[in-house]
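call fold(seq) -> tokens
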Amino acid sequence: MRQEQMKTLLEERGLDAGLVARPANIRYLSGFVGTESYLYVSRTRGVILTDSRYTLQAQEEGKGCEVRTIGKGRGYGALLAELIREDQVRELGFEEDALLYGTVCGLQKESGLAPEHWKALEDSVSAFRAVKSEDELQKMERAEQIGDEAFSYILNELRPGLTELQVAAKLEYFMKSRGAEGTSFDTIVASGLHSAMPHAVPGGRQLEKGDFVTMDFGCKYQGYCSDMTRTVVIGKASGRQKEIYQIVLEAQQAALEGLRPGMTGAEGDHLSRSVIEKAGYGEYFGHGLGHSVGLEIHENPRLSTAEKTVLVPGMIETVEPGIYIPEFGGVRIEDMIVLTENGIRNLTASPKELIEL
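ret:
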């Protein structure tokens, strides 16, 4: 069924076949979860190109697909040449953003199909994944539930003297113990002045009383990602910490109440950004409000000032406003939501009032 989408795309673009290289798109279209492989789709068939490490796996998972294996001087270019010859391919689409330039040049040379007959597919294949099915939503909801459980757990573990790395390790171990396959991305734990860095890398810094601690984490469940962020204070929060936290909370709430199908990603971003700007902290909110999530942690469409895509039911978005003040600290609060016919459904259940530990 999903490969029919690809075949329709080929017809619309006037292409004879397409070469899919992004692992998430290969998985989405074929069911095969191995790496270092390609999916070739023509108007009549789908073929997984892989090596001997994944042959049996591809045969089991790639339902409806042929499997061809490289080996002993017979590389991917040679396999592609065979398929191009068999299907009389004149125009081949390819995922240019998922391949290195050198790889493309090598494949073009080995396949015998001249560069002018290779046509960029841009984001058209990834766009198939923008609206989630009910099965996908169920997997993502479970992934987010594991994240909620991890947050409840870590609240009882946080204390002065614990390092950022130790906090990250505890979160990751807990999520795996609850059935997660792994993390959606490198866990972010940023304490004290580090919390002013949106994507700070956890280090050996020890938590201290008076610290903001921002924790941005997620896990994969049956291939699908979750994403959430919470910021807490170790000890008692200062007046300014409470002020910044409240502004971010109100900004997020404005988006959660206002997001709906029919608006663009830019309009969604404005719901939160206007609150932060009105409070006088616009210069300290430098990133977009959110992004879609699925088989990959960052997908399209986004909630950002430049996003023109119209939101529709079934799309997943994160809602994660933040304020980051150098030499003071920062706050981010993030939920993961799904667009519904009338608004949104929030998949994140963890409390958002300021927690002082």
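The domain at 134-346 is CATH 3.90.230.10 (Creatine Amidinohydrolase).
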